[in-house]
């Protein structure tokens, strides 16, 4: 019967809302401070944010020759490319 | 809301039926009991309806109480970001039609991508060489994922399935022969992701559900019900934060799920249109979403609310995909107006806009070590940016 299935889905909805209402929450100021702290702590490692020394970002090397590229990376040569 | 309309119609339908039955079977001794049952049903429904309404407003109240400040206010003292020099470093050409999805391998150089014409290609992003190619039996391969080991890829789309292809070192071997069907949905596959191992896959589908599968046996381990419409995207929490994942759908909701119990533990509904992409913040305490309403939003899981909106009046096209840089300071969004907007997550401002694609950007992922990000587009190409 349509009404019985509506009833059971309404019961589920109410149970779900009760569960969501019972979640433990912290203040936005505290949450925001922690998000900010994480960003600042890890900023140094973020290549897209701060950039990395020439030669250590493989994508910034032109892909002229894949073998040559591996050699360059192994020898740690800075050819001043790009 | 849809639920209220249904209830209203059901209540009216029930009382109409009651009248008809009463007229037909006036002399039957069963009538009083039937009538009482129907009335009781109506009362219970009405009671539940009002309970759900009051719970919803209580939820909003509780969330609002803790909303003491905005994220960008907290971040006022943080140094602003300078000019960014990000350009296309590689262009991967080879797909014959719209690129719909891509994923990085953990080795930070290989990429798997899938397209509308049914092709799934594995690339070496450093050299732009194609290493493997598979043709799926269906078109619109909307989802693809690389296995953590790098030894397999998973993909699916209009075939309603998610299939796993082990990658062979022998280039001549026919990958399609070793294909394993893992997931079965009753509508299109919109997204898939391996969990921490090659053994389990999480999928989301146009049938409104997400599901966790065992790769070896194809068995359904857990299903996740709660979205009221197609689920379009999902993302697993970073491993340190435990067994949860977030999903976004056409019902404008982003739901956070417990993978073991199948329960939806938190739900967010602030977007004004379909949510096309969700991605966890690197610490696991928040996630970002991108939507057809042209905004990206940040939701903090511990504050249990939206804490930032990334939008501009000039941006009117939907966001198809989002991802964070390694530290979480930058949010990259691929848009349907062919551009990529780069946002300062803390301050809420746009720091850069990147041009290059000649059609909508459909997928965007930052590489595992954060040195580059890749985009796939309806212009048939993928681009690596750094």
UniProtKB/TrEMBL annotation, chain A:
Domain G protein gamma: 3-68
Predominant place of localization: membrane
Record-annotated membrane-spanning stretches: none
Pfam families found in the cross-reference section: G-gamma
Localization: Cell membrane
One BP term from GO: G protein-coupled receptor signaling pathway
Superkingdom of this protein's organism: Eukaryota
Assembly and binders: G proteins are composed of 3 units; alpha, beta and gamma.
Role, per record: Guanine nucleotide-binding proteins (G proteins) are involved as a modulator or transducer in various transmembrane signaling systems. The beta and gamma chains are required for the GTPase activity, for replacement of GDP by GTP, and for G protein-effector interaction.
Family label: Belongs to the G protein gamma family.
Classification via PANTHER family: GUANINE NUCLEOTIDE-BINDING PROTEIN GAMMA SUBUNIT
Protein's name in the database: Guanine nucleotide-binding protein subunit gamma
TrEMBL record, chain B:
WD repeats: 92-133, 182-223, 224-267, 268-309, 319-353, 354-386
Protein name: Guanine nucleotide binding protein (G protein), beta 5a
Subunit structure: May interact with RGS9; this interaction stabilizes both proteins and increases RGS9 GTPase-activating protein (GAP) activity, hence accelerating the deactivation of D(2) dopamine receptor-mediated signaling.
Classification of source organism: Eukaryota, Metazoa, Chordata, Craniata, Vertebrata
Family, similarity comment: Belongs to the WD repeat G protein beta family.
Keywords: Coiled coil, Repeat, Transducer, WD repeat
InterPro entries per UniProt: G-protein_beta_1-5, WD40/YVTN_repeat-like_dom_sf, WD40_G-protein_beta-like, WD40_PAC1, WD40_repeat_CS, WD40_repeat_dom_sf, WD40_rpt
Gene Ontology biological-process entries: signal transduction
Keyword match rRNA processing: no
Coiled coil: 38-72
Source species: Neogobius melanostomus
